[in-house]
Specification:
Layout (H helix, E strand, L loop, with lengths): L1 E6 L16 H6 L16 E2 L8 E9 L2 E11 L2 E12 L2 E4 L3 E6 L2 E9 L2 E8 L4 E8 L3 E10 L7 E3 L5 E7 L2 E7 L5 E9 L5 E9 L2 E8 L4 E7 L5 E8 L4 E9 L4 E8 L4 E8 L4 E9 L2 E9 L2 E8 L6 E6 L5 E4 L14 E6 L2 E8 L5 E7 L2
Antiparallel strand pairs: 1-3, 2-30, 3-4, 4-5, 5-6, 5-7, 8-9, 9-10, 10-11, 12-13, 13-14, 14-15, 16-17, 17-18, 18-19, 20-21, 21-22, 22-23, 24-25, 25-26, 26-27, 28-29, 29-30
Length: 381
């Protein structure tokens, strides 16, 4: 099963891109589940439909035994949202996201994530205004089996991840305390939990990534004025940390695991200087590369590990917001950087997302062409 995330935001470019055949080397590098996404050309934006949508707070691309699906949170009004699915097929001009089908009505969902499980997948999301968390067990075809309310659990960014060598976990704020909750393969809480920070820390926007055994967790600490990084065991007990990422005005942090070098890269907004900064630690949270600027005049960095390096995507601070991406080595240094691409709509604040697709990485957004067109681009070295 293959999953993408797509965030609110828009890029503008020519809609004439077609599905290209992959070379044998590209096919080998894409070893993993068969999906229409693997037919997208390298580093070339693809428009998935003709646009004309209402704003979408987030989109997810799910590939399963019944095909490819775009799952989105449609923003009808401030607190009236709908989670919808769009079947993805091959049309005369390439990939096409079809008509919307209702999955469930929700209050206000900004961010969600999906993890595969036996016979389907688990969807995890937070209700922004209600400050609650939910999981949903789903069958192939994006069909709801069971919804699991988790009580007060807010602000996961995104909230769901698989714990390496373990089950699943949801993260968020409960009465302003940062906690992580164990989730079973059926989407139900396991009863395991761990409070990582008290309300006095002022934690915000926690994010997680699976390690080989456990999780790496990063969050903003208002009390300390930094971002903090910790690792958890598969049973959610604290393994190492937390340690501070000394970035001025650190916010919106994201984390990637590099299994080949056994290193952790954290990227975050430096809101004081208006840049994206990144730092590297080993699996014991010993510093490898101190935090440093990776992208000037930038914000909203997103990162995924990729072999012994990582892909980073961000939005340039400009009168016309544009997306850029870069390749990082295992020391967190930029080795390749793209030119600015298109034009993003920043009306909702979720913009773009970067996610694994099998062994590939894809940056996704909502495009300005034809008024909010679902779009994607596969990144290749």
């Amino acid at each position: 099963m293959t999953i993408f995330l797509i965030g609110c935001g828009r890029l503008g470019f020519d809609a004439s891109a077609h599905v290209d055949a992959q070379s044998s080397s590209e096919a080998a590098s894409d070893a993993g589940p068969n999906t229409l996404a693997n037919a997208m050309p390298c580093s070339s934006p693809v428009l998935l439909d003709a646009g004309g949508h209402l704003p979408h707070d987030v989109l997810i691309w799910v590939n399963d035994t019944r095909g490819d699906w775009l799952v989105g949170v449609e923003h009808m009004s401030q607190d009236v949202h709908r989670i919808l699915r769009h079947p993805i097929t091959v049309g005369s001009t390439g990939l096409v996201a079809g008509a919307a089908e209702l999955i469930v009505a929700v209050d206000h969902v900004d961010v969600m994530h999906v993890e595969p499980v036996a016979g389907g997948y688990v969807l995890g999301y937070n209700e922004f205004v209600l400050a609650t968390g939910f999981t949903m067990l789903m069958a192939p075809g994006v069909v709801e089996i069971a919804s699991r309310p988790l009580g007060m659990l807010a602000s996961g960014n995104p909230p769901l991840a698989r714990a390496g060598a373990g089950g699943l976990a949801m993260i968020g704020l409960t009465s302003n305390a940062l906690q992580v909750i164990g989730i079973g393969e059926d989407g139900a809480p396991t009863g395991k939990s761990n409070q990582l920070a008290t309300p006095a820390e002022g934690a915000a926007l926690p994010a997680m990534v699976a390690l080989d055994d456990g999780l790496a967790v990063v969050w903003h600490s208002d009390a300390r004025g930094v971002c903090r990084l910790a690792t958890l065991n598969a049973d959610l007990t604290l393994a190492k940390g937390p340690v501070d990422m000394a970035v001025s005005g650190c916010a919106d942090a994201h984390v990637a695991w590099l299994p080949q070098s056994r290193r952790i890269i954290v990227v975050a907004d430096d809101t004081t200087h208006g840049t994206i900064a990144g730092g590297v630690w080993d699996e014991n949270l010993t510093p490898v590369t101190p935090p440093a600027m990776l992208a000037p005049s930038a914000q909203w960095g997103r990162i995924v590990g990729d072999g012994d390096g990582a892909w980073l995507a961000w939005v340039e601070n400009d009168s016309v917001p544009k997306v850029r991406y870069a390749r990082l080595d295992h020391d967190g240094r930029v080795t390749v950087m793209s030119d600015p691409i298109g034009q993003l709509d920043d009306s909702l604040g979720h913009y773009h997302t970067l996610q694994h697709v099998g062994s590939s990485a894809v940056v996704l957004w909502t495009d300005a062409t034809a008024g909010r067109t679902f779009s994607a681009m596969r990144l290749c070295q």
